[in-house]
Write a structure and sequence with these properties.
The structure is a homodimer. The first copy, chain A, contains 13 helices and 14 strands. Chain A is an alpha/beta fold and about 400 residues long. Chain A has 4 domains: about 1-40, no CATH class; about 60-105, no CATH class; about 120-215 and about 360-390, Response regulator (Rossmann fold), CATH 3.40.50; about 220-355, Rossmann fold (3-Layer(aba) Sandwich), CATH 3.40.50. In chain A, helix 8 (about 185-195) links the parallel strand 5 and strand 6. In chain A, helix 6 packs across helix 13 (about 355-370), helix 9 (about 220-230) packs across helix 10 (about 245-260) and helix 11 crosses helix 12 (about 305-320). Chain A is elongated. At the A-B interface, helix 5, helix 6, strand 4, helix 7 and helix 8 of A face helix 5, helix 6, strand 4, helix 7 and helix 8 of B. The structure holds a DNA duplex (30 and 30 nucleotides).
Chain lengths: ~400, ~400
DNA sequence: TAGAAAAATTATCGCGCGTAAAATTTATAT
DNA sequence: ATATAAATTTTACGCGCGATAATTTTTCTA
């Protein structure tokens, strides 16, 4: 057998005795050409899985009305809101449901209801575990509250964000939880969207757009990290992207400058090149350039966000710059977000943690109020949750 | 102003002069109690955004038939398949569409069509950027092919995986791209599901279930990493979870043992404790225990997957164990997957890369064939793509 | 220009459920 | 027991579109 280094093309390989698979690998036509060997395809003819032990499969509410002995309009009321029918009839319905496992056709329901139970959840970049975690939290809340959430990611692209809004209109959602891209967003289109669909913005604010905003208090993040760094050592420089994707970055820079001045230090903002959402790589390249030159104005760096810090720490390691708070280290690094991976960086990252839990809970709760209020809140509110400083080894 | 260390509770904070937000922070009742100050809520009365410059908003296909001068059945055909009508009428329809921006009601369409254009994409753990990337790739393919993908994450929980299948049945999807949890999956329930809904499994195989499987060739991964490590230094130990979440892990262990024996070395499998999907933490704790004791049988470790390796590298750093291939290092670490973060570990991680692109492309293409074939393929195929060795600094 | 084939039109039904109004039953209070 | 309110049932219609059959129109071929 022949093993080759990465980058080379052809690769032939034979697998285990039982289930043999031969793959002829050709980067150019890999899909069309890959040969396959099959198993015995024992697939029974199509047929929807039988649910409970019902003899005859119920097709619609009419039939279920017959077998349950409840009229269809009452059943309709029940499925709309189980508490809206008398407890005795509710019991009868639920008893019948255990026998026949009927479920209303979601398409027919959505077509006819004035308001669906759909909720759209839109995040700017799902490959960022931070958003994946928030999204999961929001999903769970929505389901618990009896809604049907659908998850969308803009993946850093305006075009996708627009498509998502387009697709969302068609779903006539009861409400939308929307974390915009930020700088890359088409502001006026989002404004239009928010006027048509009850929307709560989160994570990244667009002034005046949407019925409410829930996010983190960027000043709280930066003030804590700056205060900590200055109190325990030299005041930090601020490390960020030249053209940040997110408005939070601007608020963090402003907060940094404000805090430094308040504490009587000279602010020093380091801006690195780079576009898009590959923050780690941008942070890494920027840091290599910066630290490779060797002229660092301070021995402490505060990164605008953890993903930049992850890249920066990677660069430090590569350059042999020891990071941490012990004497052997020449640089301290702190950051903001408490990214899921920040505890596994080398060294582990001191950072200001988002209050994930409260941001998502409050976002969901606000949306529910909005929906119950008929699509409008008495006033547009902005709710910011403060950060929690997490001390680890990097500073 | 008073700054406090992490963990303490109360935190009062006042923000910028213009948009003042006061947040009284109380971990126990944070949500209910947080006070808010509002902006001028200038929200125009509800109304769906006007699309193109149409005078009257078209409500349904009937009305669009009138304004476009095309009969409704023809329009129906067009929206079902634009190529199914004469080019001249197609032009007329599309001209009218630019004037009136009508779009068929998706619920009515789905209710009446025998087959919807819905596609479900199910991944086991979306907070893993690996799956987020694959999911994005699959989404894009589906959209390009004219389908409507919906993304679901089981988040490592069987209960959620079951709920997703339940919810998916109701959507009557044309097909489903399904990456099961693996060990935690309810095998028989997935089997039932796959008999009712045309499904292509990917990433994690369940023998005989689904119409096809597309994944990576685990033997190819491990054989390359083992071969590389042995050729350039000492043969590696194999580092994995005692009870892996995923069947791929078992195949990798078997491949490791097989390769070692083939090369004439004694296999050495290190199994660390831990349940669930927090692989990094499990890897870290396991490595701290293992390396803290100091009795490492080899100076090379091959991790079952990158997320374990990320935890292991973090432990090495903490313990002051230098990892890499230069002389100053005492340990070499390699792994499998090419996780998006593996290039930012310290040191950067040598790993066998998934062929993301081909796995997702082939998965999507197989599903489309399956759908066009009426829900069944002539035979159940398993397609595995080999890995590509990525040499970085850790080994 | 005739004839056949293709496409579009008209007309009508069905999908599964929401919803409204009127008639009937049931629960609660006097 | 009786009056009253509340819940339920009956009846009927509407939602927006897919699908079909029968007819008419258009287009293609010779």
């Amino acid at each position: 057998m022949n093993f080759r280094r990465a980058g080379e093309a052809a690769f032939v390989y034979v697998s285990f005795p039982n289930k043999v698979l031969i793959i002829q690998f050709d980067f150019l036509r890999a899909i069309r050409n890959c040969k396959k060997v099959t198993e015995d395809g024992s697939n029974s003819p199509l047929g929807w899985g039988s649910g409970a032990m019902s003899k005859t499969q119920i097709k619609n509410m009419e039939e279920f009305a017959v077998v349950s002995g409840i009229s269809r309009p009452t059943l309709s009321k029940y499925f709309n809101d189980p508490a809206s029918v008398r407890v005795s009839t509710r019991a009868r319905i639920e008893a019948a449901l255990e026998q026949h496992d009927y479920r209303p056709n979601i398409f027919a329901v959505n077509q006819n209801r004035k308001l669906t139970k759909n909720i759209g959840i839109v995040v700017p970049y799902l490959a960022d575990p931070f958003f994946a975690e928030i999204a999961r939290n929001l999903e769970e809340r929505c389901i618990q509250a009896g809604y049907r959430p659908t998850l969308y990611s803009s993946h850093g692209e305006q075009k996708l964000e627009l498509e998502i809004m387009d697709s969302l209109r068609g779903l006539r959602p009861a409400g939308v939880l929307f974390a915009p891209l930020g700088r890359a967003s088409d502001r006026s289109e989002i404004e239009k969207f928010c006027k048509a669909v009850p929307t709560v913005l989160f994570d990244s604010n667009l002034d005046g757009i949407g019925e409410a905003f829930i996010g983190s208090d960027n000043f709280s993040f930066v003030s804590q990290t700056v205060e900590y760094l200055t109190r325990t050592g030299e005041p930090p420089s601020f490390f960020e992207m030249k053209t940040p994707a997110n408005p939070n970055a601007n608020k963090r820079r402003i907060a940094y400058i404000q805090m430094m001045e308040r504490l009587g230090f000279e602010p020093n903002v380091i801006k690195v090149e780079g576009q898009g959402w590959a923050f780690e790589e941008i942070g890494r390249q920027g840091a290599l350039k910066l630290l490779g030159a060797g002229n660092l104005p301070t021995n402490a760096i505060l990164c605008s966000n953890d993903r930049l810090a992850i890249g920066l720490l990677s660069a430090c390691y590569q350059l042999g710059i020891r990071v941490g708070r012990d004497k052997s280290a020449s640089l301290r690094v702190a950051s903001n977000d408490d990214h899921p991976f920040s505890r596994f960086t080398c060294p582990s990252l001191t950072t200001a943690a988002h209050d994930y839990e409260n941001v998502s809970n409050k976002s969901a709760e606000t949306l529910f109020q909005l929906i119950e209020g008929g699509g409008h809140l008495p006033e547009r509110t902005e709710t910011l949750f403060p950060a929690r400083l997490v001390l680890r080894d990097s500073a």
